Structures are given as structure tokens and as C-alpha cells.
Amino acid sequence: MFILIKQKQSNNLSTLKMASDNIDIIGTLQNKTEEGFDIKNSMSEKIDNSLDWKSNNIIIKLDTKTKIGIIGDDGTAMDTGGLEFALRLNGCSEPSNLRQGKYGIGLPQSLVVDTQLNGTAQIISRPRNTDTIYSIKIDYKKCIKDGKYITIATEASSAQERIFNENTISGYGTVIVVEFDKNKLNDLVSHIKSSEIQSSLIYEFGFRYSDYNLVEKRIQFCVDDEWFTVLPVDPLCKGRVPVEDTQLVECLVYNNGTQYRVWYTKNGKLGYNEKPKKRIRFTNCDVIPAEWKFVGRFTVESAYSSNWDLLQADIIKYIEDDDECEELVETEQRQNRVHERSKYMGGRYYNRNDKCIDRVSIEQPTTGDKSKYKYVTDSRHKTRFPVELDRPFDIQVNKSRIREDNIDPEILMTILQIANDFATKMYKKYCPKNDPEPDPEPDPELSPEPSPKLAPVPSFEPSPKLAPVPSFESDSVPSFEPDSEPSPKLATEPTFEPVPQPTVKPSSEPTFEPVPQPTAKPSSEPTIKPSSELTFKPDSEPSPKLASEPSFEPDPEPNPNLPHNIVIYDVGPSQHTTISVQYGLELINTLTKETTIDILLLLYFDRCARDQIQLMCEALHGKITEKKEILLRMIRARYLGNLSTDMLGGAELIKNL
Questions:
Q1: Which end of the chain is more exposed for a tag (fewer CB within 10 A), N or C?
Q2: Mean pLDDT to the nearest integer, 8-14
Q3: What is the largest CA-CA distance in the chain?
């Protein structure tokens, strides 16, 4: 293992040295050039870091003559300690839903990939509210020659200060300077300039970072003075696909100490999938046994269209509108290109935090009703999961890639079955006269027996995040944030199946009411109420009811002393107050207390930094009408016309009237 040696220099700057007495440092570094990072993953790692550092602008400049790449941002930047930690091999940090970083290997490995150990890399950084510029430099040739990997951060030299001042975006932030390997740089430039969707880095980063606000946040490449801007791409075209052709299913993951199991609602009933023989079977189970402990939740969002190219015509034109494309005629070559493009733009997408870490193509089925095949391949799906599920989703050092084969079999079986059921619904909707044959199994290679797993994944406290950007194709609404309030049911959406919350009745353990928003608390056990209108209480873990006979809790009787739009639920020794979205909108229209509006704005801008929303509220102080208009737009965007569901912040609204 590495020996970390702390030293003090005369300038009192802390330095960090990694000695290699107990390891083969040359072999370690050389292995990192072959650990599954391609040049696109390497660039994505640097963008992840800039976004983790709260950057709003990221500019990557590449010079193909000098082979120099400069990555600049306007983030929070680092001092000497931060720089040394950033380049430390295996500098692990606690997983968080606020950032992508986890293992502390991504940035050092990306620099090894860029240089192929034949150049230098230096990071120059200036934190806000300071005049001091700090730097750290790694000479990989020297590391290989001496057999030592030494990271020492100091104040920047005059030459480094000049580099920083020439490339800084806002006077503070971080500038990374890399001497690229020639072949790696050429590969990177070809992907940036590509006029084919399936090989375009601009398109790939568009869907990878679409949940970040790419209107206020900007990612740009400059190759030899030619500029390329990353635009947000929503593969599911939310807002352009009719809501009746979409679906959102929420899944709850439990672990009994040896395996995982996923509960979700199908056809109005709570249950889970199992594969006792060859076919997958949905087993109804409205009472979750006490030995199963809650781990986390994920969602599977689906959409169907018979003409995705029309819905995404703008981004296709942006990427492929060049002379080469204009010269193509309706030949077999063009048809093949369109087919490959459609296959690449579709598929199953996996989102961890705000980043799409990978996509998997959907292959055409080989069994079952052939007329259903197109509904399988023309359906798109996006699975969103938090860091609490990193282990069953098998998240590794490269957080720009996922292997479905390594996902826990129970979780993968559920995702594939939900996708297959959605394709079947679309087939029955658009081909009602056909009597489909039994559906093919989602994954014939899926093992019928789940792999044993370790104890449940520990959960971590999420914090508010930046609001997602409207997609390039359409306006979108704030996306699902793990372990915060689940996405509401879409208007007139017959296929949306929220997971009912099982009633918790553990022996001798009282049930606690979740702490109200805006700040989400770590997952305890969410209470699941099996009723037709379901509302997930944020960040509460569904505690299992002790198994007896399956039963449903009756809907609460309305309190005759309250308005009919207000419902109070008894939850153990506590009470929950809820109101419908419709009633909430009516109350907000008559609201005159500015402090109440500010409270609700903080709730509905739950993905933005709290201090930013407070600054906005202060800037609009006294302008109640403007604040109410912003709040009403956020609420309507969140619920998409589904006015009968429970409203987020309803209790706060009633309490602060």
C-alpha cells in the first residue's frame, strides 16, 4: 500500500509524498492506462470534477499542433491540500448524491490515459476570495524513471500564474494543463468533430449531462479555434411524447442479508418478480416480511414513439448537418446509417445522481409475436438510482460505464420486465385486433437464482441540487432525485404505477413521521399505503409490516371539521396533513404571506443550492405576484396536470396560511 509522508517546508505549505517501497509504482501507473477508460470517459471524468466543484462554465481547449489540452472552469477551486488530495491515488471520499466522485481514482487515472505516461499534467487553481494561486504538477516520465509518484502542491510559479490568467473564465476556478498523447488527442478530436450521432462526443455529453442545467451551465470545446457547444439531449423527449405513451414506475429495493428483492406496483397490486423456472412470475405481496430491510429506491421511466427522428430532428440536424450528410442519397448506405443512428439514440439509459452514466442498446427480439418487435425496439427507458444502490448496480471506478450483466439479477430482472410490460401495453394499444403470443423473456441469459449479496447498502443524506435543464428537444420538468420526493403521477397516464407504501407495524417500534422538506433526511423506512392515490413521503424507508394475512389499510375517514380538500392521516402516534394539488393552487392564488411563498419556493427548487434560491427570494422581496407566478409554474410543471394527487409542501402551506 502507499505510504503517505507528511513534510513541512520553510513556507509552511503542507506537502504530500507517496513512496513506493512496498509497491511497484511503475506497474500501478501502467495498469491505469488499460483499466477500461477510453478518451471519452477520461474527458467525462474531468467534467464530473468541474461540476462537483460547482462550476457553471467549463471550456476545453485543444491544440492539435502542440498537443496541449487546457480544461478551465469557474468552480470553487482548491488549495494545496485539495490539489494533493485530487491527485492522490485511491483518495476515497464518502459517497454522496451531490457528486459523482467516490473512489478517488478518476482524475489521476484520466490524466494517465491522456498522457499515456509520456507527458506532464498540472493543475492550477485559485479559490474564491483569495489572491493566491496554487498549483501541482506531475511529470509521468520522471515517475516511471524514478519509480516514485510524488504529489506536492505549492504556490504557483510566475509561469503558471500567466497560464492561469490567460485561461481563467472568471478570475477564479481551476485550469488543468495536459500534454496529450498524439493518438489519444486525435481520437478525442475526431469524436468532437464527428458528424455521426453514434460517434459524436457532443451528442453523448448532451444526454450524459442533460439533467444538469445546460442553459445556465455551459460545456464547450474549442479545437484549433473552432467552437463546439454541448446542448442538452433528453432521449425520452419528455413533453413531446404524449403522456399516454409514457410510464413511470417506482421500485423499492430490500435486502435480507443474502439477496436483494424489488417491490413495485403492477396492475394496481404490490409485489415482486421471481423466476422459479423458465418464465418470470409477478408475485402479489402487499405485506413486506420483517426480515427484509430497505436499501433504496429507483425509478424506471419509459416512453414510446413510432418516429423518434421527428421528435429529435433539431439535435440530429445540429450534429449531422454538414456537407458529407448532404451528399448522401437514399441508398443502402444511408438507410444503414439511419438504422444505426436510431439504435444508438434508443435503448435503456442508466442515471446515477444527475449524470447518465451509460446506455445499452435494445436488440430486436427473436421469439414471440413478430408484429410486436418494433414496439420493443421503439420504446426507450431510463432508470434512475442513488448512491445507496451503487453496490447492486455494480458501480466501479469508471462512472461513465455500466455493465448490465453485473447488475444484481433481481434488480435487472425487474428493469427488463417493466420495460417488456410497457412495450406490450403499447402493442396492445396500437394493435388492438392482434392477439399477441406470450411475451419473450426479457433476458434469456438471466440466472433464475439471485446471486447472494452482502448486507444492505448504507444510505447517505442527500442535499438539494441544481434544477435540471429543459431538454434540447422540449421543455422538461425537474427529474427524479434519489431518496427525495418521488416523481408524481402523470396526467391521464393509465400506465403510471406508483408503489404503494406498506403499513408499518413493527413490534414495539413506534413509527415516526418524516421530517418535512425542504431538507431531505436520510432514508429511514417509508410508509407505504396501498390506496389508489399514493404519495411517497420523502426519504422515508418503508418499514415492513409483520407478516400475517395480506390486508390493506382502509382510507382515512375525512375530518368533518376540516375543509374537504384537507386530509389528515394517522401515522402511529403522529398525524400527516395532506392537500390536493388543485386545492394548493387555489390557496396559493389567494396567498398574501411572502414568507410562506419563500418556504414553498425552497421546496420546489429542491435541486438548486439553497443559498441561490434565498438570493433569488431576497432579490424579489416585496414582489409577491412575481414570486407566486414562479411558484405556480414550478408546481404545474412538476405535476403535469395531475391535480388530484397530494401536493408537496401542502402541510407547510396549511400551517403558514
A1: N
A2: 34
A3: 84
Mean pLDDT of 81-107: 64
326 shares its domain with 398: yes
Neighbours of 288 (CB within 10 A): 26
Q: pLDDT at residue 459 above 90?
A: no
What is the per-residue pLDDT for 5? 32
Same domain membership, residue 245 and residue 105: no
Predicted confidence (pLDDT) per residue in 22-33, tens digit: 345 566 666 655
Single out the residue of 110, 125, 229, 88 nearest to residue 181, CA to CA: 110
User: Which residue, 92, 48, 89, is CA-closest to 71?
Assistant: 48
Note down the domain range covering 305. 232-553
Residues 576 and 481 in one domain: no
* Cβ atoms within 10 Å of 329's Cβ, excluding its own: 7
C-alpha cell at 29: 501507473
Question: Could you count the other beta carbons within 10 Å of the beta carbon of residue 152?
Answer: 18
For the chain, how many residues are written?
Answer: 657
Q: How far does CA 526 lie from the centroid of its chain? A: 21
CA distance 468 to 480: 10
Q: Could you tell me if 126 and 172 are in contact, meaning their C-beta atoms sit under 8 angstroms apart?
A: yes
Least confident among 184-188, 196-200, 499-503, 622-626: 499-503
Task: Please name which of 163, 168, 195, 206 lies closest in space to residue 47, comparing C-alpha atoms.
Answer: 206
Alpha-carbon torsion (197, 201, 203, 208), positive or negative: positive
Alpha helices in 20-66 (DSSP H): 25-31, 39-52
Residue that is last in its domain, among 137, 162, 193: 193
- DSSP E strands in 419-508: the ranges are none
In a domain, 151, yes or no: yes
- Three-class SS of residue 441? coil
pTM for the model = 0.62
Spatial contact of 250 and 500, defined as CB atoms under 8 Å apart: no
In a shared domain, residues 101 and 24: yes
- 131 and 245 part of one domain: no
Q: Nearest 5 degrees, angle CA 301-CA 304-CA 309?
A: 115
In single-letter form, the type of residue at position 238 comes to K
Nearest partner of 247 among 362, 62, 380, 359, judged by Cα: 380
Domain count, the chain: 3
